[in-house]
Design brief:
With 348 residues, the chain is an alpha/beta fold. The chain has 13 helices and 10 strands. Helices cover 45% and strands 18% of the residues. It binds 5'-O-[(R)-(carboxyoxy)(hydroxy)phosphoryl]adenosine and zinc ion (ZN). The site of 5'-O-[(R)-(carboxyoxy)(hydroxy)phosphoryl]adenosine (KG4) has 19 residues, from helix 6 and helix 7. One of its GO terms (cellular component) is cytoplasm.
Amino acid sequence: MTDGPLVLGIETSCDETGVGIVRGHTLLADTVASSVEEHARFGGVVPEVASRAHLEAMVPTIERAVETAGISLHDIDAVAVTSGPGLAGALLVGVASAKALALGLGKPIYGVNHLAAHVAVDQLEHGPLPEPCLAMLVSGGHSSLLEVHDVTVGVEPMGATIDDAAGEAFDKVARLLGLPFPGGPHIDRVARSGNSVAIDFPRGLSNRRDLERHRFDFSFSGLKTAVARWVEAQQRAGITIDVADVAASFQESVCDVLTRKAVDAASSRGIEDILIGGGVAANSRLRAMAEERASAAGIRVRVPRPGLCTDNGAMVAALGAELVARGRTPSLLDLPADSSQPITTVVA
Ligand code: KG4
Ligand code: ZN
């Protein structure tokens, strides 16, 4: 039993209704209800469907989390909630629920940044964050490299995608290959039996000229188009596509660029720890390649377990607990949901 503030966190920025409860760095409950299956036939998250699903799932998910943690709601020290970035309607459900809870219980509320929460969650698994660290956040909605000194104060963006997010590329290429949504885990699985050097797909923003302007930025839309063209050409020629080879070669390109730029970014600032978060951090090839390249550069890598990498409430509670522990000022009760909350704003 460790001490620290007891915080309940709510996450509704996309299609997962997550409620987490932590005490300091100890995870007590992480309950997630996902509407992913309702979106599968559309090949992407439908905002209105997600909002309604959050509304239905919210109360039961809170109840399950409280029961799992074996606490009484009255014992919590604060409520934390993702205030942005994310889908406006989906965020609203979480923010409104958190306000009701905070008001009803007479506890402070922290409206927190979703990306900072992806960073803070690692404390639940590996203890205090190394300060500074280089965070690489790769998910369906974002791909960024961030320099983090104190996650409760702010993070400095070093680079980001200029078009598609890494997870979005996985999802789109999976769709092209006839794999289900969300595609990342399926490409990961299928790629294991494929040849990663079968097709030489392009590495976005990696030639010398691009590196001058976009050293730490990513671009995945050209890669997605290259995969689409390759598949079309094979089909036109009447050749059956080896899905495993395409998946493995595509995945190799994404992981190659992500890990190369992350290690370069860390080295350029003399940072010795890289933390990877977001849904794509669950990718097995990304984890292996990051380990290998970072260790060659004398850099340590931390990746939370897959369940903590995808969206969940525990990450919001983890950041909330750190904010309380460091005495940061809570949000006002009229805090808005901000679909484009900047990464530099940790608490709204
Ligand atoms: O962080 P997350 O749950 O939600 C967002 O904030 O977007 O990330 C979901 C994304 C999806 O694009 C999904 O395909 C991708 O993470 N993903 C993966 C893997 N598991 C999830 N991508 C590659 N390999 C995986 N194993
Ligand atoms: Zn996320």
